[in-house]
Write a structure and sequence with these properties.
The protein is an alpha/beta fold and about 280 residues long. It has 11 helices and 9 strands. The protein has a single domain, classed as Alpha/Beta hydrolase fold, catalytic domain (Rossmann fold, 3-Layer(aba) Sandwich).
Length: about 280
Amino acid sequence: MTEPSAGSLRVNGATLHFEVRGRGPLLLLVPGGTGGTASFDAIADHLATEYTVAAYDPRGMSRSALDDPEAEQRVAEHADDALRVLDLLSPGEPARVFGSSSGAIAAVHLLTARPDRVVHLVAHEPPLVEVLPDAAEHRALIARVGETFRTQGLMPAMSVFAAGLKKDSDSDSAGPQAEVELPPQAAARAERTMADLPYFVGRIVPSFMSYAPDVHRLQALSDRLTLACGQDSRGELPYRPAEFLAERLGTELVHFPGGHTGLTTHPAEFGEALLKTLAAGTAG
């Protein structure tokens, strides 16, 4: 694995850690969950054969420290962080963007707010549950997660959250289950992931999963947006908003290898699929 060059960027209320590798047009990777830049380690070198690949730890995660650890988190501010990284690394030139999960929500807001800075966005399983016809049920889920976190602690809250993300037929599942055994690199990140989980469950989940995108704006920008899902995620909650939006926007829903965490469990195939999707999305 090529050692990336690292830097830090002051933004409103935080200092972001970012990493850059490769040469060519900029591709900004926006991580979801508690992954940070490390979630892209297994695919970044492959992507860097064609792009200058930049990734960063979202504010409050890993090496991106908040000025105020108790600050409320907003999707618009996270999207502005992505914009600031773009402005630093690709001033005056729009860039390609990939976002996963909660990172895809921030990236969707970036596209709608500043389309002049985005050539094309690939949004992988953004849990934009507010677009769904049964959004009220998912608001109730997030409320249950928050209440469980406050009264019982982190792991019971994670069990409630994981059960709510499963297919209906899997609703008796007792908590998070990996799709496959994680490779050693992913397993080595477990300690950092656990350290970030309270912040993710307490601050990111309620804010991001209550975010309602501007669907009319996305309709106007649909030629710059690819909605993607894991081929093994069908029926799960993170799959459904992308499926719904693709149908609403009249665009193709692209399937990537694996499930919601396919970039970790199937990195080689995932990276190749992303390169193909980016090439197709910006053709001509």
